[in-house]
Structure prediction request, 639 residues.
Amino acid sequence: MPSSAGHHSPTLNRRGFLRTSLGGSAALVAAPAFVGWLGAADAKAATAPAAFVDDYKTNVMANQTPETNAVVRALGGFAQIWKTGGAWNTGTPLMPDVLRANVRYCERITTERTDAEARKAFIIDRQHQSYSMIDGLGPLAALYKTGAKAVTSITSAPDGTPPAKIDDAVPADAPAGSALGAGSYDSELGQVARLVDTLRGNWASGNPAKFAYLYPRPWRMNEDSEVVDTGGKDEFGFPVYESKVVVAPQLLRQRSDKPTDDGGFPSGHTNALHLASLAYAYAVPERFQELVTRALELAHTRIVAGMHSPVDVLGGRIMATALAAATLADPANSGLKAAARAQALAYFTEKTGTTADSLYAYAHSADTGTDPYADREANARAARPRLTYILPRRGRKDPLTVPKGAEVLLETRLPYLTAAQRREVLRTTALPSGYVLLDGFEQWGRLNLFAAADGYGAFERDVVVTLDAAAGGFHAADSWRNDIEGDGGLTKRGSGTLSLTGHNCYHGGTAVEAGTLVAASPGALGEGDVHVTGGTLRVDEVARVRGSFVQEGESALELSLRGKHGPALTVRRRVLLGRGSVLSLRLDAERPPAAGTTVPVLSASQLRGRFDRVELDSTSLRAVPVYTADGLSVRLVRQ
Prediction:
């Protein structure tokens, strides 16, 4: 199992002196005139470094420089904030305002912490991280634990400080063959467990980077990012530091008493949690976004515990994102990742009585009473601030060059897109530039996987998407929930169904050539023209077309009829209806219009042509079209 242990660091006061305590007496020592190898590498090495995904196996303890270690290099943005010293307590804050905010955030969070939060922080600290992530599977979590034979001995927290260190173990009464973490390889979900462990494998430790950066844990620092050892000892024999960060009482004896081997940056637990989440998300993409949310939530408990600071947690997320992509992109793991996805799909569909097309609905069938991640909007509100924490944003907005291989992270979540299209999704949903630390080598920290799971953030060029209903799962139906902007447009092809739910403002227009495109919000169709030449454009409730609307060929426009409601489709410019066009109307289940009423259906500045056929999903009523120069209504009459 990969280590999640910490390591060491330095700190300094506003005048460039480090305050420390040696031999029990406090002293101020000048920060060493130390050549920052991190800064030098960050400022451009003589030879271009290899892409992270091609170099990730350099992350071993023997390599602790950016020139030799891909993880240290990927975390190089931290070198703009912190200059590593020659010992754990001799570093220099290069951005004191950022590091001061970093410690003050820890002080506030730990002093306001509730007992329930302290208990949860203990469980996440002591429980195997791969096991902790399983609950992100929601309604599938219990099935996973059974099928994978995954167990833990850490299910509750003590009332106070336990007398000794506590580690996770296989309970004595666990079924034969049970295993910690993601579970047993000899189980119905053994390939998934193996995938999780592979992502957390030999090259996934945060320890080389901890030794490289030597940044202290927050409970060893005060508001000025200084390490101040009072010279005293607490009741557990730990040195007492002049810090207002309060460690959860249950974790006081779980800390390391060796600061030289216990650095804070990056957080090893955070790295492990995110690696496990992305492995599960690859195998069970039906819960991709919820797993990302849970990883961010559990990583936050490291701050709540008093064991890590925001920059530590951000560093752990950055390295895990890069490591997950590198491991999944490694050709040596291609068979394993495919087997894990196939195994998970087969297992869960069998156990739930679903198909590849209906498993997603089952995986989202619980409410927030049993699935804490059932509310997508609540997930989004929780996730967004945890991507940047206390980091200020400075500088202009520069587009992201997506790191090589990063698109593999969306390979099962957006399987109908090409690799190039998945890269565009990552680029157009990325965090803006200007966040120090996130802007390190290849800028892995800017990837926003929560947003990327909801499709494009912008159409910066025309996008053609093809969904195949016969392939099942996300190939058959998917939703893009982001608010999509840009000068490009969208062309929908293939037999599957794509839903747009955002408040979109892309300008390049919308074309439906096959399958079904669903306008699931009033602004779903963007700012341009809409052209339907095949398949179906379905409007849920109401929608607006800000340009012109053209329908021709063997195609259908599907609208809902509601009593006492305006037109289901409003077109700002003209409507042109050609041969082969069909209008398919469905009665709203909750507020259907009554027989004998005339219901507005479509309004425009000008209407030319007529539908070849008008259909209504009723056995007792038929719809009689009433055309005018600027729209269409239907009169409902009994059959």
